[in-house]
Amino acid sequence: MAPPHRECDPGTRHSGQLPPPPLMIPEILLPFAGPPPRSDSAQLRTHALAWAQRHGLIGRRGAHRLRTTALLDLGMALCGSASTAQAEILVCWYLWALTLDDRIDDGPWAENGALDRFIAAVQAVTENDGVDASGEVSRFEDPMLVVLVDDLWPQTQCLGGEHWRHRLVQHLLQHLRAQATLVRVRETDNALTLAEYMPLRRDSFGALFFFDLIDGAEALDPYAHPTDTGWWNTLREHAADIIAWTNDIHSIAKDIVCGERFNLVSILADTAGMDWPAAIESAHQRVNTAVTQFTAVAAKHAEHRSGAATNPDRLRQVVRGAGDWHKSVSRYHLHAAESMARDNRQVDLELTPPTLKSRQFEIDPYPLYERLRTTLPIAYDEPTDVWLVSRHVDVKAALTHPGASNNNYTWQIGPLLGHTIVTMDGCEHAQHRALLSPSFRSKALVALEASVISVTTDLLARMHGRPQVDLIGDFTAALPVRVMAHALGLPAETREEVEQLKRWCAIGFAYMGNYRQDPALLTGGLSNRDSFYDFIQPYIDARRAEPTDDLISLLLAARIDDQPLSESFVRSYCAILMTAGSETSHGALANLIVNLLNEPGVKEAVLADPGLMDSALAETLRRNPPLQLVLREAREQLHLPSGTIPAGATLACLIGSANRDPDQFADPDTFNMSRTEQATSHFAFGAGRHFCLGSMLARMEITTSARMLLQTFPNLRWAPGFKPIERGFLNRCPERLEVVL
Question: Where is the composition biased (Basic and acidic residues) (predicted)?
Fold first, then answer.
């Protein structure tokens, strides 16, 4: 029998298959009293959020989300009777672990050994106080490691004695290693048996580690008497299983939609050939059995307890608090808007939208787009707190709606660059756009074309005589960086200069699109900005003293309301122009080259008629846009053709979906240069007031360089055995283009 969940997975289901039945989530009744409310809950929440923002674990948007939802409530439930000072440490640990879990679950960060390296660093910090084998103190760039070594671990290790610290560290490492094992299994697409999954699940959830933290925060040692060790460990394991399995049951719909196979319900369905209702009921029975076993162990040793440290009520309160949290927190109930009012127990997978945090959006978003357009054209994505807009008619309406603003960029890029043209609306935006527009049109465009030809000629000359070339590293990524650097008046001639500019642009672009709110991008973006600003400052100073005809000189001479632009404005404009003018152009050029070499007859047609390159690019931008989405904020309620976006909401206009909407484009997945509607109907450059300022430059740059590439190397073809693979979501294109010239 085929695994039931693969047939029912909305993300992989083929059209024509029967929709899965609604899933009924059982009422999990835990016969335990919950933790008493704490009078300092507001103080704990405020402290944790300020701490996380100060150390770069969360940004503005993440802090708002944690402040206005129940996501931190489980952290409060863990605090027990700890003093406020000790409870603050515990809630910070909870937020640290929550952030790490999201990084592991939400995308590719943990893969290719990255999580193993992270674990090694955690081990060095917690076992050796961050001292490496040479006796030197290790320094880290990842903010989660920085805060661990500088703040969290120094505070934590004072909570208990040596034996307690050893137990705490071992359970922390067990927790992280179990997660790393699941990542490796996911990477290799292997299956797990039930016997393999059960201990991994207990450790991957991390309950045993938090039980140790609670002991330290409450200054209690349940292991002070050796006779208590065995039964107390058994009791804790039952409690950990109840928490983990309850989580699995409540998150089954989310896991199915996101393609996450490591869930007790899914594994029961796979290994025992059960249908969904039977698998859910079997998982529920396992929870009930664990509750019974917990109760039996607690009763058996009731007369032999050594004091408050081994009082089972401490564990009961945590288990009940976790159960209530899993049942109520929106994180595990991904219903579409129209089904939100229903009882959370019944989950209709047809009304459970995919989330932008799913790594499937990085791998192949197009099946997800099809499902959204067909079933959920306006859908709320709870994990990112964003409304997904997927149909062409709705994306067009949203991008051109007067009530849709760019205010979302105040958290996307505001902390990095401040208030710039990207965050502006209305008259202010119009003034700044009018200032920059002439630099990308008419005579200025002619001068930029000369730069494009010059840079392309140089890059192509460097390829001559080489048997094999990676066009990403040697052509598509370098070209727009050098052209925009030349326009600004910055040096970009040597490989070192170009590589440095490419790194700055890539990190800045990733910061702007950090919808997953990865902490490494939050802090890395800020240090990256400072490095770029240090680099350009001498050129700003030189142009102020002696202006030339470059963009920096233009910005320094500009006036808005008869006032010059501030120094911070000039620097931020340089960063925006450098980043926006390179990353998406690189992706579009790479995707165009793929279509030229992959699509039958296209390369030959363009070689015979170079004017067709414009059509080839237009069709590439429609079918394979590098930028897959843009965000907007609804300053008022937005009534779109397929539904309504509430006022104040953030909406994701899914360009990659709209550009393949069959209601707008016939046979949309097919590359067809003869389309008459694609040049003006796709959204690769956006639409409305914020239509891409550099669209004319981008088109000219990409078509000119692609023509010259084919004219210079008409026999261009893929290297033997190479196949280009699109990856990514913010800038979707191949990572390599290995060709024979």
Answer: 1-12
- For residue 247, the number of C-alpha atoms closer than 13 Å in the C-beta half-sphere is 19
Largest CA distance in the chain: 92
**The amino acid at 625:** P
- Global pTM value: 0.84
Residue 514 tokens read as 């950090």
- For 130-149, write each residue's pLDDT tens digit: 555 455 556 788 999 999 99
Hey, how many other C-beta atoms are within 10 angstroms of the C-beta on 19?
Answer: 12
Residue ranges covered by each domain of the chain: 1-25+218-352, 389-740
Residue 648's region, left for phi above 0, alpha for psi from -120 to 50, else beta, is left
Strand pairing partners for 734? 726
Q: Are 82 and 218 in contact (CB under 8 A)?
A: yes
**Inter-axis angle of helices 567-580 and 495-512, nearest 10:** 100
Higher-confidence residue: 131 or 542?
Answer: 542
DSSP state of 136: P
Three-class secondary structure of residue 740 per DSSP: strand
Radius of gyration over every alpha carbon of the chain, rounded to an integer in angstroms: 28
**What's the whole-number mean pLDDT along residues 706-717?**
96
CA 349, 355, 360, 366 torsion-angle sign: positive
pLDDT digits (tens, 9 = 90+) for 473-517: 999 999 999 999 998 999 998 889 999 998 888 888 888 777 777
* Whether the Cβ atoms of residue 593 and residue 709 lie closer than 8 Å to each other: yes
The answer to whether 692 touches 698, Cβ cutoff 8 Å, is yes
Name the fold adopted by 389-740.
Answer: Cytochrome p450 (1.10.630)
Q: Are 32 and 244 in contact (CB under 8 A)?
A: no
Mean pLDDT of 441-457: 85
- Exposed, middle or buried by CB within 10 Å (0-12, 13-18, 19+), for 544? middle
Residue 389: beta bridge partners?
A: 378, 653
